[in-house]
Structure formats: C-alpha cells, structure tokens
Write a structure and sequence with these properties.
Blueprint (H helix, E strand, L loop, with lengths): L1 H19 L12 H8 L1 H12 L7 H16 L3 H65 L11
Length: 155
C-alpha cells in the first residue's frame, strides 16, 4: 500500500510547491526547479503518467484531469490572488485524491481478503472431501479387500 500511495503524495508535494510559488513578475529571483518543471511541462507529464497507469482506477481520472488543468491555469494566472485561489483548490483536490487512493487501496485489500477467505474455504472443503474419500477407501479395503480407483497401484 505504501508504494502505491507514495506516488500521489509526491504529486501532491510537487503541486503544492508549484502553486505556492510567487508569480514570476512579482519576484525577480530566478525560477526554481518547480517553476521550471511547470514551464517545461514535466508536471503535466507526471499527472498524465499517473492517469494512464490507472493509479486509483477510473474514479480518479477526473481529479487527475482537474489537476492537469490547474497546472496550466496556474501558469496562465496573472495575479497573486488568482494563483493563491488555484493553490487552495489544488490542495483540496490533492486531499480528495489521497482519500480516494486510500479508499481504492482499502477496496483492493478487501477484495484480496475475500478471495483469500474463499480459497481457504475451498481448501478446507477439499481436505474434508479427502478425509471422506480416505475413510471410504479404508472401509472398502477392510470390508471387501479392494482398493478405490484413486489408490490403485500404478502400472
């Protein structure tokens, strides 16, 4: 679960850092690595890869798409207030994304646990059936002196 949840957490960190950065016009400092990633489109590639891999299933596709759009909107935003609004909304979406990923993992684990229980039940039934067959075979062997088909010697 940790490996699958790590990717959205990393994405969340990247997006929050990117959206929290001041506008380039407001600050004469050189662009940071995050700003460069946003400008180069690397951030959109990360989101696209996550969406294509199906991280979290189809229910998260809309969130990935909204986050991709927010990255574009953030780059095109003119004012600091506009960028802050986008950052706030992105933080909400990242929270939803993380919650959805956790729910997806819980459903996946529940499915795996159900399959495990089903297999354990099947194994128990096979063991009971084996005991019944062995008991019947022993009874026939003792009463009639004949072995069941499954116990016959190999030729």
């Amino acid at each position: 679960m940790k490996a699958t949840l790590a990717y959205p957490v990393i994405l969340a960190g990247w997006l929050i850092l990117a959206l929290a950065l001041p506008a380039a016009g407001d600050n004469p400092t050189p662009p940071s690595a995050m700003e460069q990633a946003l400008e180069s489109g690397e951030f959109e590639l990360l989101l696209a890869e996550a969406g294509q891999r199906g991280d979290g299933g189809p229910d998260l596709a809309a969130i990935y798409e909204q986050l991709r759009q927010m990255g574009k909107d953030y780059k095109n935003a003119r004012s600091r207030d506009e960028k802050q609004g986008i950052a706030n909304r992105a933080e909400e979406l990242m929270g939803q994304l993380f919650d959805a990923k956790v729910q997806h993992e819980q459903r996946r684990l529940e499915t795996m646990e159900r399959r495990l229980r089903d297999e354990q039940d099947r194994l128990r039934q096979m063991q009971m059936h084996k005991r019944d067959l062995v008991h019947q075979g022993v009874q026939r062997a003792l009463e009639n002196g004949e072995l069941p088909e499954w116990a016959a010697p190999q030729k």
